[in-house]
Amino acid sequence: MKIISIEHSIEKIALKTPFKTALRTAWDVEFVRVCVRCEGGVFAYGEAPATKAITGEGLEEIVASLEKVAGLFIGKSIGEAFVLLDTLSDIGSSTIAALDIAFVLLDALQKKQTLFEYFGTQNKEALKSAITISLNSSQEMLCDAKKAYEEGMDILKIKLGADISHATKVVHRIAKEVPKAVLLIDANQAWDVEGSRKFIDAIRSLDVALIEQPLGAKEREEMAELTRYSSVPILADESVFTLEDMRYVVEHRCADMINIKLMKCGGIRKAREMLEYARSNKIKCMMGSMLEGPNSIRAAIHLSFAYRDVITFVDLDSPMLYKQSHENMPQDFIYKGNCIGII
Ligand SMILES: [Mg+2]
Fold it and tell me: Which of 86, 215, 262, 292 has a beta carbon 3.0–4.6 Å from 219's, enabling a disulfide?
């Protein structure tokens, strides 16, 4: 099965409400969709969202990268495409992820395997995703948290900013008013060591499941210091893009848990290497995502089912945030509240 074309389009899906973190505000999910066609009319999609603040790739960069490399894959088998993709060092991780997702799906089609068979998935029981509570005033965040919980979303990912007293107040208010919700904190690198310690001390009495990326991505030693100090598990997100980063963070105990995202590591095959490493070293992970389109989320959903033994938290809420169901939604997963079912 040889590749005969690789085309791309820019897609946009409106969000119900703006998505705000310490790094950015987004009103839409914007992504590049790649369609890889093979002989015999077989095709598959991959997607890469614009996340310039994280991977350095906006839509323009992704399109430019695709235009640069797409031609290299024409006439190649899927196996050859994988080998070639692994040698491309001058394009970003999201672009690589988009191509990898499409190639993996084609590989499964070529092997006549369902994705369950391909990934070795045993247990298809529904999984729950966290839902993001965007960074806003404490009153707004409390309202959003209450509303989400009333709608059945019981795992809340609370986005916090640099202001530690605001952060502390928000978490105390939500913990008090929505006591049964599981609370995940994400500071998106906004804090320093002193502020983080202050926050950890201030929430000691509360039941918080984890604190994600309190410090800058490169501040590994400080992350290690904080991990030793913290009574709440520390989750590394922006500090870990690749398996190499993950090994470093695990070996030096810079964090207790790792957030794996297809767009950071460069797609399904790289994410599987990280999940296999987690499995053999008993490292708890989160399967995360950017604000993404439905086809890249689908890949992350399949990995979450296949590696549910090491994925303690699933953070794939993008489809829950779309204003309306996207026309090109893949048909093999459904969201009901925060439960993800797979068909
Ligand atoms: Mg994060």
Answer: 215
CA of 324 to the centre of ligand 1 (A): 24
Q: Within the chain, where are the H helices? A: 52-55, 59-69, 78-87, 93-110, 115-119, 138-150, 164-177, 193-202, 220-229, 243-251, 262-265, 268-281, 294-306, 318-321
Instruction: Write the single-letter amino acid at 54.
Output: I
Distance 29 CA to ligand 1 centre (A): 17
pLDDT of 269-304, one tens digit each? 999 999 999 999 999 999 999 999 999 999 999 999
User: Taking a C-beta distance cutoff of 8 angstroms, is the pair 330, 144 a contact?
Assistant: no
Nearest by Cα to 170 from 205, 145, 201: 145
Domains of the chain, residue spans: 3-116, 118-342
Would you state the structure tokens that stand for residue 185, as one six-digit string? 């904190």
End-to-end CA distance of the chain: 27
Distance 185 CA to ligand 1 centre (A): 9
Q: How far, in Å, is the centroid of ligand 1 from the Cα of 110?
A: 35
Are 3-116 and 118-342 equal in CATH topology? no
Name the residues annotated as catalytic: 159, 186, 212, 237, 261
Query: What CATH architecture does domain 3-116 belong to?
Result: 2-Layer Sandwich (3.30)
What is the pLDDT confidence band of residue 328, given thresholds at 50, 70 and 90?
low
CATH number of 118-342: 3.20.20.120
